[in-house]
Amino acid sequence: MKKILYVTDVLRLDVATLDFACYLCNLSRSKLVGIFLENIEGEARSSKAIKEVAMESGISLQTDNPQEVKERCTAEHIQLFKDACMQRGVTGLVHRDKGAPLEDIIVESRYADVLLIDASTSFSAEKESVPTRFVTEVLADAECPVVVLPERFEGLNKIVFTYDGRSSSVFAIKQFTYLFPELKDHSVVVITIMEGKKPAPEERYKLKEWLHDHYTDIDFIVMDGNVKTGLLDSLLLRTKDFIVMGAYGRNAFSTLFAPSHAAPVLKLVAQPVFIAHH
């Protein structure tokens, strides 16, 4: 892997999330490309809202002009990004995208290995719940795997694969493994929640066989019950883990990931979540 994207609104840069982004870059010897999005074509936020968002980032402003606010924020946040990358020993590059954020991100993802995004990223005039509509659409349409960033990063303990027997969950496991071979010595936990149709025994065996070719320490957890409740119960108690989930594409995401179970996980789990879909 060589190219990782870090997505942010020009008005808001959470430097704390760069700890995890730079960890992945150092791990994989990749460059980090900061995608600074400016919603010119469909800006719905008022001048007051734009200034408030900017001030939440700690930037002092003497103007209410939205374009001047954006330019000031862009300059300061790009410098913060470059400084953070340099301090962490990562090659950091910057792309300024000034069109329609979703369209810009999809094109960027087409030529990248992994895309990193904060679940709260939003260009809406209204306050949104997590994951926001913008993030949901990015997850549905991105043309590379997406990692939803943790609020803070204090080290990596285990890798958690969620497996339901469907091709999407296996695809996500394989994509993660191919992209991060450097994590082969980390402990792996495979969680399966049994509800409705169960993974065929021969398929579970084939997955175990494949995983043992790539990892050395593997544990399998199988539980009965509701998938969403079971996943949340299993994942909420974990710390410093990297969660891997499969997804199905735009139709599924149109109703907040249904029939996938990623949405409630993203709402409540603080760990990084890797999502890949066909």
Topology, element by element:
Elements: E1 3-9, H1 18-28, E2 31-37, H2 47-56, H3 66-87, E3 92-97, H4 101-110, E4 114-117, H5 133-141, E5 146-148, E6 158-162, H6 167-179, E7 187-194, H7 201-212, E8 218-224, H8 227-236, E9 242-247, H9 250-253, H10 262-268, E10 273-277
Tags for this model:
10-stranded mixed sheet; alpha/beta; Rossmann fold; elongated; Universal stress protein; 2 domains; 278 residues
Which assembly state applies to the chains in this document? Answer: single chain
Report the order of strands and helices.
Answer: EHEHHEHEHEEHEHEHEHHE
The percent range for strand residues is 15-25%
Could you list the spans in which at least 5 consecutive residues all have pLDDT below 50? 248-259
Helix content: 25-40%
Question: Mind summarizing the main beta sheet?
Answer: 10 strands, mixed
The name of the CATH architecture of the largest domain is: 3-Layer(aba) Sandwich
Strand order of the largest sheet: 3-2-1-4-5-10-9-6-7-8
Gross morphology is: elongated
- What is the CATH class of the largest domain? Alpha Beta
Secondary structure tally, helices = 10
Number of domains: 2
Instruction: Assign the structural class, choosing from mainly alpha, mainly beta, alpha/beta, alpha+beta, or little secondary structure.
Output: alpha/beta
Alpha carbon gap, first and last residue: 19 Å
Please state the CA-atom Rg, rounded to the nearest Å.
Answer: 19 Å
Kindly report the average pLDDT value: 85
According to DSSP, the number of beta strands is 10
CATH topology of the largest domain: Rossmann fold
Q: Tell me the CATH superfamily of the largest domain.
A: HUPs
